[in-house]
Amino acid sequence: MIARTYPGADIPELADSQIKDIFRNLDMQFNNAMIRAGGYGIYTGVVAVTLRAVASRNHSQSLGRPRFLIFIILLLYLLAILSIYNGWAVEIAHTTLPNGESFWTAFEYNPGTPIFLALGIDAILSTILADATLIWRCWIVWGRSWRIVLVPILCTTLAVVSRGIVTYYAIFGPSVPPGALFLKTTVSWSVLYTLFILATLLWCTTLIIYR
């Protein structure tokens, strides 16, 4: 039935349950992109308020610090723009079935190495900038004590490594060596990446508030 609906498409014979799963997956990708776009709108408002607060403060003692913070905020915002653009290209451009293409074309679509590499580099740079700024602030508040920031530095380093591994598997897929494939099946690197970022955030924020 599906092959007759799309006569020009090379679609294998699929059960109704498989077709429903495919459409559910495509719908989930579309909804995920919409949620990310909405979150980016909220993030834009937060960035605007933060920039206004930083710019309106009296910085008679140090003019370099507010400029540095503004630069970091704007750089993180630009990286977020790149991330949302790449996510849109992956999750929207080929799930809306352009030019009369079939659902199978959207399901089988592979964004390619440049998109995955751009997403990975963007995530790594954002992690380094955001966590380094937070760690630096915690280090300053605690009187430049390196013992206080050793744990978040380690967590940030492991987060960067985890995100790099996620990007590696996304690019090379099943062509990775057997040893690397074993690590992929036994370790959830994306979960570790999130946990390490959360650990850095909670550690530094708690210590800054406590101080």
Mean pLDDT: 78
The outline comes out as elongated
Structural class determined from secondary elements:
mainly alpha
- SSE ordering: HHHHHHHH
**How many strands appear in the DSSP assignment?**
0
Radius of gyration using CA atoms only: 22 Å
* Poorly predicted parts: 1-9
How many distinct helices?
8
Number of domains: 2
Measured distance between first and last alpha carbons: 67 Å
Strand content: under 5%
Percent of residues in helical segments?
Answer: over 70%
Keywords: Membrane, Transmembrane, Transmembrane helix
What does this structure look like?
With 211 residues, the protein is mostly helical. The protein folds into 2 domains: 22-111; 113-210. 79% of the residues lie in helices and 0% in strands. It contains 8 helices and no strands. Helix 5 packs antiparallel against helix 6 (146-172) and helix 5 (113-141) packs parallel to helix 8 (189-210).
Task: Give the topology, please.
Blueprint: H1 2-5, H2 16-56, H3 64-91, H4 103-108, H5 113-141, H6 146-172, H7 178-186, H8 189-210
Characteristics of this structure?
about 210 residues; disordered N terminus; elongated; 2 domains; mainly alpha; 8 helices; about 80% helix
Quickly describe the structure.
The chain is mainly α and 211 residues long. The chain has two domains: 22-111; 113-210.
